[in-house]
Amino acid sequence: MLEVRDLHVKFHNRDREAVAGVSFTLRDGEILGLVGESGSGKSVTAMSIAGLLPRKKCSYQGEVLVDGEDMLHAKRALLRKVQGNKIGVVFQEPMSAMDPLMKVGKQVEEVLVIHTDLSAEERKQRAIQALTDVELPDPEAVYDKYPHELSGGMLQRSMIAAAIVSRPSLLLLDEPTTALDVTIQAQILKLLKKLNQKHGISMLFISHNLNVVRKLCKRVAVMQRGVIVEEGLTNDVFFRPQHPYTQHLIECIPTRVKVIARRSAEETADNTGKSAETGRVDATDGTGVVDRAVQAGGERHDGSR
Ligand SMILES: Nc1ncnc2c1ncn2[C@@H]1O[C@H](COP(=O)(O)OP(=O)(O)OP(=O)(O)O)[C@@H](O)[C@H]1O
Ligand SMILES: [Mg+2]
């Protein structure tokens, strides 16, 4: 699906490479987490994958293969084709990502205007279907609303609808829940998991919050200063971090959350007959308990909201 090979990106106005040799693979239908401190190169990596690097402002090397097409060096026409058909992108701030003067429905279907020759009516149907897929109540009404008429959670759902309206096989999610409060955050994570399971969409989920990633992603890569310092199954990384930086990230998660997460991982492993060591697929599913712990005020130490 996605293969990043030895990606380097250096902005001309910076001394240090923003991305300094990153390689990873995202398999079909998988959700991979990418975590790391601010400035570690997560967004630049995502931009490279989406073909959104400001090429004139940087030098870049390596390969970013999306279904075999190298997005890093692709010509404009190919870039647009892949962007319109294969990749959907969701960013952190739903409010600033939307045009306040344009109705939500029109924004959701914008990608179809650019990349397809569907009729206006067909586009509208597709947009309403996407708004339905993200489980917005009364999608027809939402279609006709302006962004300021929606709550933050509804807006983020609309942004996800805009990202999936072209039925992409890969979603790049750059801190999609960071600006949301914890309850809404949990709902969006649940929705993403559903979209992954129901539509088989592969996802790269970027966050600086390892605890959020633990709930959604089977595998995680940890970035620091432009490189991946650790990569593996999320539960392995969460419970047995090897790299000092990952250990530091885990230390920032309150102990109470870690204990409950550990118990839920073990319980799930018991229920499925797997050991806690290998039962991580389901263990990452044990969100309910941790959510409650987090809602009780646990999370915040890592600077997330
Ligand atoms: N357009 C740009 N021009 C110059 N430098 C940039 C540009 N975009 C990013 N950078 C630099 O590249 C480095 C990596 O930035 P990036 O946005 O990928 O970090 P990040 O891991 O996404 O951080 P955050 O968690 O804050 O979003 C940073 O040093 C940043 O200042
Ligand atoms: Mg970023």
Task: Give an account of the 3D structure.
By secondary structure, this protein is α/β, with parallel strands linked by helices. It folds into two domains: 2-86 and 168-298, P-loop containing nucleotide triphosphate hydrolases (Rossmann fold), CATH 3.40.50.300; 94-167, no CATH class. It has helices at residues 42-50, 76-85, 94-97, 104-108, 110-115, 120-133, 139-143, 152-164, 182-199, 210-216, 234-239, 244-251, 255-272, 280-283, 287-298, and strands at 2-11, 19-26, 31-36, 58-66, 69-70, 87-90, 170-174, 202-207, 219-224, 227-233. It has a six-stranded mixed beta sheet with strand order 6-7-8-3-9-10, sandwiched between helices. It is globular. Mean pLDDT is 85; it is low at 274-305. Bound molecules: adenosine-5'-triphosphate and magnesium ion (MG). Adenosine-5'-triphosphate (ATP) is lined by residues 11, 13-14, 18, 36, 38-44, 54, 57, 208.
Overview features:
305 residues; Rossmann fold; six-stranded mixed beta sheet; four-stranded antiparallel beta sheet; 15 helices; 21% strand; binds adenosine-5'-triphosphate
